[in-house]
Specification:
By secondary structure, the chain is of the alpha+beta class. The chain is built from four helices and five strands, in the order ββααβββαα.
Length: 133
């Protein structure tokens, strides 16, 4: 298991193929994914997990499994979609909504980006977005 970051309540790590069933609870849920082009078909989830794991090893940033320390379960995903731009994203299983996990994990992700020397790139993209608005 490749640990990326840790907070008081959460562990962020690289996705593993064994995460498929937990991941279906959020990426396979229409309500969770309604603003992201809809749920991911269950048969495609293993490929998505593999792509995010590869992204971490190739680009030093990725979207990560968010593990609730208390339960040991993967309850969501948080991190960066890295394409021609870097986008902070998060998705969580509905049963953990409202607990502040998104904010907690997002802060950890920004700290990871800072350690990887990517914070300047993120800030530049934010400034460019603000200028367009």
């Amino acid at each position: 298991m490749k640990r990326i970051a840790e907070t008081e309540r959460l562990l962020l790590r690289v996705f593993e193929v064994e995460d498929v069933d937990d991941v279906k609870r959020f990426w396979g849920d229409d309500e969770v994914m309604e603003h992201c082009l809809g749920a991911i078909p269950h048969e495609a989830i293993p490929r998505v997990l593999e792509a995010y794991a590869n992204c971490h090893f190739e680009k030093a940033l990725s979207v990560y499994a968010v593990v609730e320390k208390e339960s040991g379960k993967v309850i969501g995903a948080a991190g960066f979609n890295v394409t021609d731009k870097v986008e902070l994203i998060y998705h969580y299983a509905k049963e953990v909504w409202g607990k502040g996990y998104a904010t907690e994990a997002a802060n950890a992700c920004v700290n990871v980006a800072k350690k990887q020397g990517m914070l300047a790139r993120l800030l530049l993209q934010l400034i460019l977005v603000m200028l367009v608005l």
